[in-house]
Amino acid sequence: MPDKIDLKRVEELVxxxxxxxxRYTSYPTAPEWRNDYDPAEYIEAxxxxxxxxxxxxxxxxxxxxxxxxxxxxxCNTMVSKGPEGADEYLSRIEKETDMVLSCxxxxxxxxxxxxxxxxxxxxxxxxxxxxxxIFFKRFEMLKDAEISIELDPRVTGEGRIRLLKSLxxxxxxxxxxxxNSEVQSAIGRNQDEKMAVDLYRFCRSEGFTGINFxxxxxxxxxxxxxxxxxxxxxIELRPDRVAMYxxxxxxxxxxxxxxxxxxxxxxxxxxxxxxxxAREMFQAGGYIQIGMDHFVRPTDELAQAASQGKLRRNxxxxxxxxxxxxxxxxxxxxxxxSNNFAQNxxxxxxxxxxxxxGHFAVYRGLKLNQDxxxxxxxxxxxxxNFQVDFSESDRRFGIxxxxxxxxxxxxxxxxxxxxxxxxxxxxxxxxxxxxxxxxNIAMVFDAxxxxxxxxxxxQFSRTI
Length: 464
Prior knowledge:
With 464 residues, the protein is of the alpha/beta class. The protein has helices at residues 7-17, 39-49, 86-104, 125-136, 158-167, 181-186, 193-205, 224-237, 268-284, 301-307, 348-356, 370-385, 390-397, 401-404, 406-411, 413-417, 438-443, 447-451; strands spanning 57-63, 65-66, 78-79, 109-117, 140-151, 171-177, 210-217, 241-246, 288-290, 294-296, 312-314, 317-319, 326-329, 334-337, 340-344, 362-367, 387-389, 421-423, 427-430. The chain folds into two domains: 1-28 and 370-464, Arc Repressor Mutant, subunit A (Orthogonal Bundle), CATH 1.10.10; 32-327, Alpha-Beta Horseshoe (pyruvate-formate lyase- activating enzyme).
């Protein structure tokens, strides 16, 4: 049954809890990673991981190219009018993959393979095949592997969809953002609605069953009425999953966001109302909320995993197929191997020079300690499954969780008083209302935020 939400109470709590905070796609969060992390540490982590031959891997391929930069975008991209330069980039991807393989040895099974960007469908057909074969010829794709790609409907034709199907892709993520033309103009992404809908229907006709729509709330010019129209159209189309991302307006770090008229952005309360409208409509339309911002059909494997407390999340999104080690290749990509985070250079020049010299392009990272691992587990459980089982954390880490977390559990009392958490001796459960403030709840367990004397090192997006 959908959670009943008192919107007047939500308005009060938004005023109380809305503040900058991490999204927790990782813990520790990226600002805490060391800039002096040596690529040799990454190599050591890969070699250590090579011993678990039967354990599958997750792989992420970053294709940075876009024909035009959308003003709202927070991703690491580069504008290119044609795909010609992508051939040299793919040559470097091949070199980097070979370096990874030389460290992994016989560990070659892949359970999750995701292409992100940028715009992966920017590549030509031949380049798409080449990129896929770089991995297909070196690794073993498991029969039930999740093979996914992000699509921009403006640069994706029917021939590309047929090609992806023939290669074995089984999940597609389509960037919709908002169907409203005024909103599209305000974010520099004019995308014909009919084109997007026709592409979606063609994907269905080709047999794709795992299709995700990306929507963004909090964009300039969005109103309750205009967004309702977009939501009605999306629900009528019945995608398998919908990701409802909160727009993070951070022009100090993303200079292109300065093109957005800040006066046209919704107020914090309106932004909150936009999400609750979507939540209400999706649940009324038969979708189930998972995590903090996704809605899925009841038959989707993510819904089933969430009902069993087995949902997982990494930089590739919510998943049931995430391996404990994942490897990113390409500029700005992130790996997590043997409890080490390692990120490649975000600038194409530095990435190219490192790979051309025969070295990994890693420029920052972090080896997690025991405390990091404990808190990583707790935050992941809260963000994914809205609960923490203390007996499980005791078993995993050999601790007495209630003693170890004595300060944090005391600091959760305001959330308990506000009806956002239910706590008993053995567990924590986030309530329906609490799901709205799940980032705030997770922040209580963040040791690095606790240590920051003068506030966070970087500007985070707001939690609501």
